[in-house]
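Recap for those who missed Tuesday's class. We walked through two folding examples back to back. For each one, the amino acid string is listed first and its predicted structure tokens come directly after. Nothing is annotated here on purpose, so try labeling regions yourself before you check the end of the notes.
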Amino acid sequence: MQEIGTVKRYLPWMIGVVSFIVYLTTMNPTVSFIDTGELAAVAATLGIPHPTGYPLFTILGRLVTMIPIPVEPILALNIFGGLVTAASVALFYQLAVTFSTSSLFFPLTSRKKGAQENVVIGTSVAGAFTLGFSTTFWAQSVAIEVYSLHLLFLLIVLIAILKGVEETKVAASAMSSYLLLFAFFLGLSFTNHMTTLLVLPACLFFYFRNFGFGKESLRRLGALVPFFSLGLSLYLF
């Protein structure tokens, strides 16, 4: 039983490693299509690309090109894209488990908790690999682009708000630290890609659906604004 528990604990890491190894087999060794050349050049020189500027991607890309490994900068950036995409597969597994075991949606009964957990884990693993090896998702792993990082941050944002709302509501907490992380990473996600805006209505609906429009709910939401602004401030670059 202890071995099973250990496997469950390290499953996200195992999923990420397997995905990354598979992605490496189709990795583009050089410049690819569309914006990859521009984005790679901007990362290597710490420049500014076309609007909306992508400051987070640019800074992280620059750090990647500074790592002392014996490969061309473009290959290092492509590997980084594959690594981030693989991490997104692992996080999708975590999101599926978090959603499926949340007391806000599907509370587990104590009598069948063990069996239900195994079903959740099995289907979450299957779902993660199905998404990770789908054509559109896999395509983000083969060459450097802003979308691989976008996937990662959207998943972080969704996990954080799920955990934050549940912890605040169920534990009657004044403010879960996960909500603070949600606000901060939401701001950071906007500095990578503006289509983050598309997930915002769902997040707000989920928040108000659980907390209502009362004074305490609005006060708590207002307290998240500085953390969101801190993440968004990367645009000062």
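Example two. Treat it independently of the first, because the proteins are unrelated.
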Amino acid sequence: MTTKEEAIAAFNPNDPGISGKLFGLPFTEENAEVIIVPVPWEVTVSYKTGTAYAPKAILEASSQVDLHVKDIADAWKLGVAMLPFPEKILDENNALRGLAVKNIEALGAGDVSGDTVAAAKVNDACQSLSIYVKNTVKKYLQQNKLVGLLGGDHSTPLGYIYALSELHDHFGILQIDAHADLRKSYEGFIYSHASIMYNALKMPSVRKLVQVGIRDYCEEEQKVMDRSKGRVKVFFDEDIKHAQYNGESWSSICKKIVSEVPDLVYISFDIDGMDPKLCPHTGTPVVGGFEFHEITMLLKTLVQSGKKIIGFDLNEVAPGETGEWDANVGARILYLLINSM
């Protein structure tokens, strides 16, 4: 087996990277310090599909990302590797998507119960996926590796949060997102992408949820926020923008956000938290959102605070027909998250 030191010595970061490797880097699952877990799953998406193909598209686009990071000398030497693409999960996703659509169409046709058989099968499969993700992530965390999850839709990281809840007595979640994802269930799916944070809050070790950029949510979700007694802190996109229009700096707002985050923090990054021009094919785009360098400042503020990032996910990147732009942005966000952690 090639050691990490041998891989570094034989690699020139100024040359074109290695084909088929994340960011063209020379590392393997064995010698990398950061493991990226691809989860090509979007069974419960309610609008546009495509996120299941994000891990492959981002892997391909990542070769165009230059490795030099202005604030981190030799950042690439940390060592990053993506696990092999799980084709069986994609096949299962594609088969189950048909069942999910049956249920969604039944609801759309006025059947208030939907297709309960189809919904039950989807719920069982999503629960099984969560167990797979939990076991996969926990394996690498127990090897003292850093782990990032690459979805898929926003239901995919639930198993990761379960794994963290078994390893940490308490931690917080920093969620960057257009949506609150606090529905008890959505369209009959209890493990919906719209329910990820509702499910995460069932874990006592998740002491705080800090949501940033929220701008599309329902009355049910507002009630969850209101009844949380401070466990859920929301920085709505509209409020952020209005504060800036009234003269408050983004730097000051970032410090307020970070002050709400516990010392151990998991980042859940839904790409639709960004301005839709940066993610035009994402499943449920919403007007508003962040620019790329607003996110870089937020993450730098978090890192400089001394608080520890214990994991992250990146989800809802949908390549679209061409795939190039969304995947390009997704690859750069992924590199930013890796280096921040």
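Answers for example two:
The beta strands are 34-39, 80-82, 146-151, 171-176, 206-214, 232-236, 264-270, 308-315.
The chain is about 40% helix and 15% strand.
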